[in-house]
Design goal:
Helix content is 77%, strand content 0%. The chain is an all-alpha fold and 393 residues long. The protein has one domain: Up-down Bundle (Growth Hormone, Chain: A). Helix 9 packs antiparallel against helix 17 and helix 12 runs antiparallel to helix 13.
Length: 393
């Protein structure tokens, strides 16, 4: 089961990698501006949040396999919608209903479902390692996907396609990947009810989950101000970076993130899960704030690369921590209710950042994002440094 989940994660991350870079370029080619790009990103994240919330509230009544298959079908339909539609309101509707991911991390309904499957397949000391492999796989595939952002330029130069037609072709590729992901989920075993603890809504762990979710709201809102699509827009407009160069940059950021996540289990074993989350996140946020005031492209890219080497190390530690402070029966609900803020709170960020970009205050989203993330880290450390994992198996 773990290998199938990792393979599906790799395919989805590859698609997310090029979509996050190409989405602003595609919308600009359709004649839309910064505000519309932020608005569409908000619609996508908000829709993903509601879908994830629904999984947390009612999803325990259905098998995770069935829910994953349904999400993959919606992914394929989303790619077809973006490849064939041009008007803003239909695109907003497709973005709202589908799992299109304009951010750097996985914030779709797939996340809690796959986390639950992984948690049931790995226990104890191996869980953090499995989640690190999951995050590492996603980061590597996302980095390679970012390189695919150069394909439209190649198609326009050598295949005789217009830039708009080449961009639309990439959304057809996104749809095809959705079908491939569906095929992988079809191979997942059908788990019998007697083989696992019966899933349940949040119960004895409700308090700790609510507190974590509240903090994740702050982190997610901050991250929403600078999702990959908006960071790509910032680089394209402030420094005139080409799509190919932007793809190479996001390839290296993804690569750095991947290897930092792979190192997370060793760091967590040495200093603890909460310390791993906090002590790697704060320096990354300081790099982001400094990048906002960088005098040139080289400084900006260097600081952003340094940020990438640290900013995602908390991802496997956070996932493992959430799964280890709730009872096994509560894990599906806990995964959803702690994942929801990563979409719901972040959904407000892109449209606000779009307004700031359109108003010429281009450094503000980077600074606000960094400051809020530091505040989140300090609050997390103060509130949870003494809350040890209780359910390691």
């Amino acid at each position: 089961m773990i290998r199938l989940i990792l393979a599906a994660r790799a395919l989805r991350a590859f698609a997310d990698g090029f979509v996050a870079v190409l989405l602003p370029a595609y919308l600009l080619a359709l004649g839309y501006g910064e505000f519309q790009i932020g608005l569409l990103s908000t619609a996508s994240l908000f829709g993903s949040a509601l879908a994830t919330l629904a999984v947390g509230r009612w999803g325990y009544r259905f098998s995770g396999r069935r829910l994953l298959l349904g999400a993959a079908v919606v992914m394929a339909a989303t790619g077809l919608g973006f490849a064939t539609l041009a008007d803003l309101w239909p695109l907003l509707l497709v973005a709202f209903l589908g799992p299109l991911n304009p951010s750097g991390g996985d914030v779709s309904v797939f996340l809690p479902l796959e986390h639950t499957a992984l948690a049931s397949s790995a226990g104890g000391a191996t869980r953090t390692t499995v989640f690190a492999r999951y995050s590492f796989t996603g980061s590597i595939a996302g980095a390679i996907g970012a390189l695919a952002a150069a394909v439209p330029d190649w198609l326009a130069s050598y295949a005789g396609l217009s830039t708009l037609a080449a961009l639309r072709a990439m959304f057809l590729v996104y749809a095809a990947i959705g079908i491939a992901v569906w095929s992988l989920y079809l191979l997942l075993p059908v788990v019998r009810a007697r083989d696992v603890p019966p899933p349940a809504p949040l119960g004895p762990s409700r308090g700790v989950v609510v507190r974590l979710a509240a903090l994740f709201c702050v982190d997610s809102f901050a991250g929403g101000l600078l999702i990959n699509a908006l960071l790509a827009l910032w680089l394209l407009e402030r420094f005139g970076l080409s799509l190919a160069a932007a793809g190479v940059f996001f390839f290296w950021t993804g690569l750095l993130s991947a290897f930092s996540q792979l190192a997370a289990p060793a760091v967590a074993r040495r200093i603890g899960l909460v310390n791993t989350m906090v002590f790697t996140h704060i320096p990354a946020s300081l790099c982001l704030i400094a990048a906002a005031f960088s005098p040139g492209l080289e400084w900006a890219l260097g600081l952003l690369l340094a940020r990438s080497a640290l900013s995602q190390m908390d991802v496997p530690a956070r996932s493992a921590y959430v799964m280890s402070v709730v009872t096994p029966a509560e894990r599906p609900a806990a995964a959803s209710f702690t994942a929801v803020p990563r979409s719901l709170a972040s959904a407000a960020g892109p449209v606000i950042a779009g307004v700031l970009f359109a108003g010429g205050v281009v450094a503000a989203p980077l600074v606000i994002c960094g400051v809020l993330k530091i505040a989140y880290d300090l609050a997390l450390f103060a509130g949870f440094r003494r809350v040890a994992p209780r359910f390691a198996d």
